[in-house]
Amino acid sequence: MNAIVDGMAEGPNKTFMSGSDVAKVILIDTRNQYGDAVNDGLKKFISLMSTNTAMDMPGRQHGATVKVEGTFGLDDLVRYKLQTQYGQSDRGAKDVLRRVSHCVEAAGIENVKASLSEEDKEFFKTGLEKYLKD
Amino acid sequence: MKLRTALLVIWTYVALTTTAASAAPIQLTGQQPETINGIAIRTGVERLSYISLRYFGVRPAYDVCMKQSSGAAPKQQDCADTELTYQGDRLNRAYQSLLTALDDLDRRATVQAQRAWLAFRDKDCAARAGRFGSDAGPATESTCRMENTAYRAQQLEDWRNSVRDQSSD
User: Fold this and answer.
1) Strands (E), A10-108
2) Chain A contact present for B139, CB below 8 A
3) Is residue B3 part of a domain?
4) Residues A13-48: b if buried by 16+ CB within 10 A, e if exposed
5) Which of A7, B87, B106, B135 could cross-link to B150 by cystine, CB 3.0-4.6 Å?
6) Which CATH number characterizes residue B106's domain?
7) Minimal-distance CA residue of chain B relative to A96
8) Number of structural domains found in chain B
9) B5 found inside a domain
10) Cβ contact (<8 Å) for A35 and B139?
């Protein structure tokens, strides 16, 4: 996991990933749950910026894509995981968020809260709603 | 009389020993397992898992990959995803080939059926994967989609072949 972050090009994405424990735990957790397609896609995704075009979501059909919104941050990591095939059902989406909350606990809730950007806060307040169907 | 008595004794002895012998396994194992074509169907094992995936055209390489995964769920998802790519291509080929062999009415009905099947497959696999828990969820869903795609590809290939057979009669 450190090798993935170390291997990133210098820039805001690398700065975020290097300084965010919860982002690193999410990478590890994703490695524990998903195969190479989703993980290779995530590795690519964390290097993208909002100016890049949307990338095809690995393992999905029907032209499903995912795109970095604003400055790369925790919200993008969560959206990526919600866009997996597994995250398409209500149960899957619920499980994705349950695991993310465990990652937050593992990284320290207060630490995570303190480091949330305004964009992250907005996403968790209102942006998340469209992914939650029940 | 003596002969009849002797036969009766022998018959009783044979009947008792035969019953005892045949009853012995029941006493040891409880109810006899159901057997189909010489294969005992075990409780707790899904019945459809007894049908070899080879019947649906799943490649032996998938089995090899699964063995090498040593039960690790992310590796199993890799195996399923690789095979799903192959089976998806196979399904598309069979589907396109079938459409060219059908008349207009059947073709339109088939397109609708295939779209409905695709939506059903994804919803069905998502629903069925839930019971295997979080860690295995994504791998189970991928495996389900792959197996169902192979099954559907086989259906369409068989359908196309039967249409060809009819048209050549």
Assistant:
1) 55-56, 65-66
2) yes
3) no
4) bbebbeebebbbbbbebbbebbbbbbbebbeebbbb
5) B87
6) 1.20.1270.180
7) B134
8) 1
9) no
10) yes
Residue B106 belongs to a domain: yes
| Secondary structure (DSSP) of B54-108 | GGGT--HHHHHHHHHTTT-HHHHHHHHHHHHHHHHHHHHHHHHHHHHHS-HHHHH
Q: What's the token pair of residue A40? A: 């290779």
Mean pLDDT (chain A, rounded): 91
Q: Give the distance from residue A11's alpha carbon to the nearest chain B alpha carbon, in angstroms.
A: 30
Backbone phi, psi, residue A124, to 5°: -70, -25
Beta strand pairing status for B35-36 and A65-66?
Answer: unpaired
pTM of the model: 0.81
CB within 8 Å: A35 and B76: yes
- Put simply, the answer to whether A88 touches B126 (Cβ < 8 Å) is yes
- Residue B65's domain comprises 58-168
The residue of chain A nearest to residue B75, with distances taken between CA atoms, is A35
Per-residue pLDDT at A133: 62
Q: Are B77 and A92 within 8 A, CB to CB?
A: no
Instruction: Tell me the pLDDT band of B11, cut-offs 50, 70 and 90.
Output: low
Chain B closest-CA separation from residue A76 CA (Å): 20
Rounded Cα–Cα distance for residues A16 and A9 (Å):
12
Is the pLDDT at B22 greater than 60? The verdict is: no
- The answer to whether the CB atoms of B138 and A39 lie below 8 A apart is no
Average pLDDT, chain B: 86
Interface A:B, Cβ pairs < 8 A: 61
ipTM of the complex: 0.86
Domain annotation covers residue B113:
yes
Per-residue 3-state assignment (H helix, E strand, C coil) for A44-57:
HHCCCCCCCCCEEC
The confidence score (pLDDT) of residue B101 equals 96
